[in-house]
Amino acid sequence: MDVATHRRWMLLFLLAPALLWLGGLVVLPHVELALLSLQARVGPGQYAASLDQYRTFVDEPLYWNTFVRTAVMSVLATLFTLLLAFPAAWYIAKVAQGRLKMVMLVLCLLPFWVSEMVRTLGWLILLRETGVISRLLQATGLANQPVELLYHDATILVGLVYASLLFMVIPLVNSLESLDDSLIEAAYDLGGSTANIVRRIVIPHAAPGIAAGSIVVFMLCLGNYLTPTLLGGKDSLWFTEQIYTQFITRFNWNQGAAFGFLLLFLSSLLVWAGLKLTGQRFGAVMKAS
To answer: Where do the TM regions start and end (predicted)?
Structure first.
């Protein structure tokens, strides 16, 4: 066996666990769900090829409106996350040095040392009618009675931003660290204002990181189930709730599979449109992430 063949076999051997993992837990389940989504029940235990599951999404306003609402809320959450993450990423990449930089990164990572369920329940303790913030408002005289801060769109956005902040900070830090400080110094020497420097130098340089973080945060928000359900209540109208209802409550796996693929397709379409509008290339964005 020559050296080239030996290397190919060694590479295949090293990749085998990952390929088996992806094939068994990602590809095969998606193929099965795709087949389920293209079937309709015509009798007890009898199924026939059909697009009825997808027609239901188009014909039923509740499902379409729920997806549009979920997409809009996810876009808003992504924008708010970017606004919060950019100053933090700039401080970590360009201001903090040594141990302080490490501490800042650990602080961003700290909430993820516990599960999403625990983090969301923490918000419930803070925001419920008998929670910490409500009692604080009453104690300071800013409210005369208990204040219910849960089950609002703003509450869902707070939870989504909190859960997604790290995934925006890391790509931004990676992009901003490669920005040469001499470019900013030269811009100031030439009389450039801070606003112009940010707009013409910093943001264009960080654009791949912004796009990468936005894609990750948007997809996480769009596919989030726990945060909208717990913080938004039964009337949160999140599309993942519709998928859960079809699979678990109604045992309609065909409809649930169709909704899952619609979520995947429509979200991918929105990401593609965002890349086209911003002029970013997918390869460059993935390198930034």
So the answer is: 71-93, 105-126, 154-173, 206-226, 257-277
How far apart are alpha carbons 42 and 71 in whole angstroms?
A: 33
Mean pLDDT of 133-161: 89
User: At residue 258, does pLDDT exceed 90?
Assistant: yes
Farthest-apart Cα atoms in the chain, separation: 83
Could you tell me the CA-to-CA distances from 64 to 38, 60, 71, 278 in Å, in that order? Answer: 19, 7, 11, 26
Q: Is 207 exposed, middle or buried, given 0-12, 13-18 or 19+ CB atoms closer than 10 A? A: middle
| pLDDT at site 289 | 57
For 46-62, the pLDDT digits (tens) are 888 889 999 999 899 99
Tell me the pLDDT tens digit for each residue of 194-248. Answer: 889 888 899 998 988 999 899 999 999 999 999 999 999 877 889 999 999 999 9
3-state secondary structure the chain: CCHHHHHHHHHHHHHHHHHHHHHHHHHHHHHHHHHHHCEEEEECCEEEECCHHHHHHHHCHHHHHHHHHHHHHHHHHHHHHHHHHHHHHHHHHHHCCCHHHHHHHHHHHHHHHCCHHHHHHHHHHHHCCCCHHHHHHHHCCCCCCCCCCCCCHHHHHHHHHHHHHHHHHHHHHHHHHCCCHHHHHHHHHCCCCHHHHHHHHHHHHHHHHHHHHHHHHHHHHHCCCHHHHHHHHHHCCCHHHHHHHHHHHCCCHHHHHHHHHHHHHHHHHHHHHHHHHHCCCHHHHHHHC
Examine the pLDDT at 172 and tell me if it is beyond 90: yes
